[in-house]
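re: ur question from the group chat, yeah i did fold both. here u go
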Amino acid sequence: MELNNIQRVYLIGIGGIGMSGLARYFCQLGCIVCGYDKTPTDLTDSLHNEGIQITFEDKASCIPMSFNEPCDGTLIIYTPAIPKDSEILNFFLNKGFVLFKRSQVLGIISDSKYTLAVAGTHGKTTTSSLIAHILKDSGTDCSAFLGGISSNYQTNVLFGKNDIVVVEADEFDRSFLTLHPDIAVITSMDADHLDIYGDHSQLTESFTMFASQIKPGGTLIRKQGLPLTEGHTYSIYDKADSIAFNIRIENGDFYFDFRNSETIIKDIKLGIAGTHNIENAVAAIEVCLRVGVNADAVKSALESFRGVKRRFEYIVKTPQHIFIDDYAHHPEELKAAISSVKKLYPDKKLTTIFQPHLYTRTRDFADGFAEALDISDVLLMLDIYPARELPIQGVDAELILSKMKMWNKRKCGKQEAIEIVENEKPELLLTVGAGDIDQLVQPLKQVLENVS
């Protein structure tokens, strides 16, 4: 596929965070971009406002006439999350189109560039966004494909004038094996996506394959202790090549010092909260120093970093109420988010609203979810968000609740959760989950702002 020849692009599943990034990329290149997704969202609204035509009906009759026959200059991209019985998907298959996965297209785009790829079962979106922001803010510049909406730039795609590209490398469906980076970061390899991999060893093997695909002379930066091929290490702990130390909270902000074998940066103020985000920042600093950003520019950029939508995002921050929203959907992510909130506000009672994501993940990690959620003071549990999955007998939200030690916990629907917050007016509220729990953010914000 020659990217320079592409004139028309159709994306099946255009509303996904990765797919929407490609839609914006090709739109910026001047291509005619169209697509299908199941339901309208804020993201699809934004794409529509940018001139991208989207249908929400899975009907072949909704496909523009210009995509009716295969021809040079036409590119069809699909996400593996699309059901195999999709009418639009099968229209293109039956017509003889060559379909590309999102990850394949990303691999082609990045292949001729100096690629900085960030992988990991968690931490990759924030880390890749940190790297991109440091490069942009310092004047080094880059393009970037991010797995979330950057709060600094209000988009998930950045366009630069050089050949550096920052890519979030997704392990789902082994997508990241299409990438051949110059510098690769691996933040974490906790068991996840076991519906795809079967067991943790298969996941680890896939990350090892990703690490082996670094270009000759390239660099692997990995968290200390990950069982991978030899490479640079980073961690917030002792005895690592790159570390954060002197970590502290001052007036609600996180500060730390950074050190590697060549550079020390003192009194870094991180523009976002969370101990886990300091760990992400250490990886980002190491990458950017290696690309040639000077220490002062790194420090300045970290202070001005505003995070990623739904990654430890402050929704309400008043003397009466604190409301934070986070994408956490794995036990380790939940533990990091909840623990960070408790460290920041040790004297406040924490109410957590959690929506489990996927039946398989709930089944595989019910004990871990229970342990992480028990750190909260009050829990409101929503039903499982199924995404691409069908129900599994005996697997539901009550499975997690039954394993928890906390007494102040209850199952509720979304509307009921809003009513409970309105009645109880929690001083510290955290919403967590990767499904459609984000639909609660604005209603809950309005409730808390109205009772302030």
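okk and heres the other one u asked abt
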Amino acid sequence: MSAAMDRLRAAIAAGGGAYWLRDARAPAALLAGVGPGPTDAQGLVRFDLKVEQGRIAAIAPLGTAPEGPSLDGGQVWPGPVDCHTHLDKGQIWPRRANPSGDFAGALAAAAADRETWTEEDIEVRFEFSLRAAHAHGAVAIRTHLESVAPHDPVSWRVFRRLRDRWAGRITLQASSIAPLECFQGEDGEMLADMVAESGGVLGMVCRLSGGLQDPLPDAFQPMLDRFFSLAEARGLELDLHVDESGETGARALREVAATALRRGFRHRIQCGHCCSLSLQPEAFARETIRLCAEAGIGIIVLPMCNMYLQDRVPGRTPRWRGVTLVHELRAAGVAVSVASDNARDPFYAYGDLDMLEVYREATRILHLDHPVGDWPRAASATPAAAMGLPDTGWLKPGAAADLLLFRARGMTELLSRPQSDRIVLRSGKVLEAELPDWRELDAVLGTGPG
């Protein structure tokens, strides 16, 4: 950590339960309500911020604070929200690599590894990822849990323990992940009941192949309606993996939106990936986006994982970025979030549950800049709202003082370095958590370096 950040850390620690942070900057998009000052050319506002009793007590014009540590123009952000992860399969790369690096290889490797899982194995890896996310500053996470065997919901048992253990540090939610066909018959009822009893979100994997003009497979719409009916009967929200491929005929997103509209589905729906949308004809894509907007569906883009997996052919440079039409979706009024997705497993060999890294890479991959606009919300307030946490992800009086403090002033300073010297505040106090050492996983993985 730099000397300046060391001094800031010490000054905050000495400030007690009430103190001012002077001369801070933040994206205007993260300030709820009217900003305390003018917005500069980078979309940033400069101000003083008061912390009292673990909450933001005031956001005032620059120069208001009579005393207190100064950020020297450095940025302050609300704690980020990671709304699409896979914590039960995370960190397995050292023992179950994906040599091909493609989607088929990931599916095969993950399925093989799942056969070896025990509660202890899942819990050690799951908590390791939570510790990493916590040290990076995350305040809320939604994880998808392997749910293909409702008779032995081992991942859900681990989730319930860790959700309770981590309460007050990270708000943890879970969604099921299983193929659409798993929700038929008694197994579907059992799975939906388990999700409801765990306070979870009903999720599945849905992808249609073939041509855009081909008739739907006979079984598809009945299975999709069955899935919706299970959620409706239990009052569950939906979180779907949709069209995660480079197939132009993968059009499940459109059918999900149309089904939600036809049924008048009243709960939140999130759809992740939606990669195929960016390869489809403009007219078809626009119609799909219109239906998503009308149905109130939120879209979660996973830029690092999908850029890694999609269009991977040995010896050939990828021809597309593997991500969906974020700008077109946003222009139509669709809420768009960015998230980590997988971390060090066969679907993505890298990642450390750091939402600043996700936002930094998303800016580059998806061109979320010039202007930055309100894209910072995609890593904070937008996913928080998708998780039913409307007061999270904002800088506003009354919100918890769960903050990230950066030495960086402008956006290029923020996004050009990993910001490893960031200060994480929890309830206004400096968080002393450290990133866990990879060596802690050696025993459970039965391996060495990954």
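fwiw on the second one: The chain has two domains: 3-78+393-430, 81-386. The mean pLDDT is 95. idk if thats what u expected
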